[in-house]
Amino acid sequence: MTQIHFQPAGIPAQRPYTPVTCQRSGYRVQFLQGQPMGRLFGFVGLVAALAVGMYIYSRDIQSTSATTGTNNPKAAVDITGVRMDLMSIAQAERGYFATENKYASLDELISSHSITINRQRPPYTYEVETSSGGFRVVATRSSDDASGLPAQMSVDENMEFNQSQ
Fold first, then answer.
1. How far, in whole angstroms, is CA 62 from its chain's centroid?
2. DSSP assignment, residue 68?
3. How far apart are CA 8 and CA 17, in angstroms?
4. What's the chain's average pLDDT?
5. Would you list the DSSP string of 100-158?
6. Which of 74, 58, 138, 61 has the alpha carbon at shortest distance from 105?
7. Sheet containing 28-31, strands listed edge to edge, beginning at the edge strand earlier in sequence
8. pTM, rounded to two decimals
9. Within a 10 A sphere around the Cβ of 120, how many other Cβ atoms?
10. Strands 3-6 and 28-31
11. Are 83 and 117 in contact (CB under 8 A)?
12. What is the pLDDT, as a whole number, of residue 147?
């Protein structure tokens, strides 16, 4: 005779159950009071899934800092801030072009209240190079440090980033 063990959903495990035999198929169904091994395997599975998730997250963080050229967390934050500033200046430049049909210098963008960004984020200073056909926003590092920060980062009218050591 084949036995099937299961705990019905929604019924408390403390209540005792008696075995039930199905006459037609010959199977005996026995209701059990609890399954501590199932709970243990569920907990172990949860811990394993969390470990795999943390491993993937740590590898992602390492690859992100590797693409910025540094493994220094402060430098990665500085680079991210500078890239966000460059993006904001470039978007303001595109908006200015849409309304005025010309590109503006950084001073014109600040005086027209198109942006509220400072001219620098230490150790970088910003400038805008304009021409009749486009612009380039450049962030230049002012100090010669070996922290792994790029010497210059820029973005153009196509929103393409470039950096140089």
1. 12
2. T
3. 11
4. 79
5. HSS---HHHHHHTTS----SEETTEEEEEEE-SS-EEEEEEE-S---SS--SEEEEETT
6. 138
7. 3-6, 28-31, 20-21
8. 0.56
9. 15
10. parallel
11. no
12. 67
**Cα–Cα distance for residue pair 149/165, rounded to 1 Å:** 8
Residue 103 dihedral angles phi and psi, to the nearest 5°? -90, 150
Res. 130: pLDDT tops 90: yes
Residue with tokens 């693409």: 67
13: which DSSP letter?
A: T
Token output for 4: 């099937």
Residues 65, 100: Cα–Cα separation, whole Å: 39
pLDDT at 155: 94
> Could you tell me which residue, 105 or 142, shows the higher pLDDT?
105
Whole-angstrom distance, CA of residue 161 vs CA of residue 163: 7
- If pLDDT is split at 50, 70 and 90, which confidence band does 31 have? very low
Q: Is the pLDDT of residue 38 over 60?
A: yes
Distance CA 84, CA 80 (A): 6
Identify the pLDDT of residue 70. Answer: 57
Q: Contact at 8 Å (CB) between 70 and 79?
A: yes
Structure tokens at 129: 């190079």
